[in-house]
């Protein structure tokens, strides 16, 4: 891995259903390809974030991956914030996604965002097969809070949530 390995033993948490409001794009898993597109999405989102009302946590954002197509390696990605009401007026192009209640394996990744793909690779190709746990293949998300110091900061920490069956 380019950066530190994620926590080898994840914590396990249960989360209730919640909603994320943010901007969405379609990307493809290729070496360094999705980083640029997703980085641009984050830049756009950070500009529109002050216009999203009813945020539940002022300094917490999410990166939601879903709708993965194994044939093309394409997936949908939303950069967003948790909201407590999706019936409010939202800025143009903002989508709302409902994350179902689930049990999660939570891995803490430490490093700049260039290595986060390696962390996912470790989780899905090494940890999950050895753990006996079965993932829900519908989605996963990253949580960015006060420990996230920026995409290029090697001291940044990001929690990766993998929903389990």
What does this structure look like?
19% of the residues lie in helices and 38% in strands. The longest helix is centred in the N-terminal third of the chain and has 16 residues, at 33-48. It contains 2 helices and 8 strands, in the order ββαββββαββ. β3 (61-69) and β4 form a beta hairpin. The protein has helices spanning 33-48, 116-131, and strands spanning 11-15, 18-28, 61-69, 74-83, 95-99, 102-110, 139-144, 157-164. It is α+β, with helices and mostly antiparallel strands and 165 residues long. It starts with 10 loop residues before the first strand and ends with a strand. The model has no long low-confidence stretch (mean pLDDT 88). It has one domain (11-164): Multidrug-efflux Transporter 1 Regulator Bmrr, Chain A.
**How many β-strand stretches?**
8
Q: What is the CATH fold-level name?
A: Multidrug-efflux Transporter 1 Regulator Bmrr, Chain A
DSSP helix fraction: 10-25%
Tell me the fraction of residues in β-strands, as a range: 35-45%
Poorly predicted tracts of residues: none
What Rg, in angstroms, do the CA atoms define? 15 Å
Number of helices: 2
Q: Mean pLDDT score, rounded?
A: 88
Q: Give a quick account of the main beta sheet: strands, pairing sense, barrel closure.
A: 8 strands, antiparallel
Descriptive labels:
165 residues, alpha+beta, Multidrug-efflux Transporter 1 Regulator Bmrr, Chain A, 2 helices, globular, AraC_E-bd
């Amino acid at each position: 891995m380019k950066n530190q390995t994620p926590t080898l033993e994840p914590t396990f948490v249960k989360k209730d259903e919640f909603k994320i409001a943010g901007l969405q794009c379609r990307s493809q898993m290729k070496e360094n390809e999705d980083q640029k597109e997703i980085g641009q999405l984050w830049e756009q989102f950070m500009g529109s974030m002050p216009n999203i009302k009813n945020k539940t946590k002022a300094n917490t954002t999410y990166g939601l991956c879903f709708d993965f197509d194994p044939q093309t390696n394409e997936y949908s990605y939303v950069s967003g914030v948790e909201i407590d009401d999706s019936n409010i007026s939202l800025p143009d192009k903002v989508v709302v996604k409902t994350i179902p209640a689930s049990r999660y394996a939570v891995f803490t990744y430490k490093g700049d965002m260039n290595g986060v793909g390696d962390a996912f690779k470790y989780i899905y190709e090494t940890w999950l097969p050895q753990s006996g746990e079965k993932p829900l293949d519908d989605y996963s998300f990253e949580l960015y809070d006060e420990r996230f110091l920026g995409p290029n900061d090697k001291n940044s920490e990001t929690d990766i949530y993998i929903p389990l069956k």
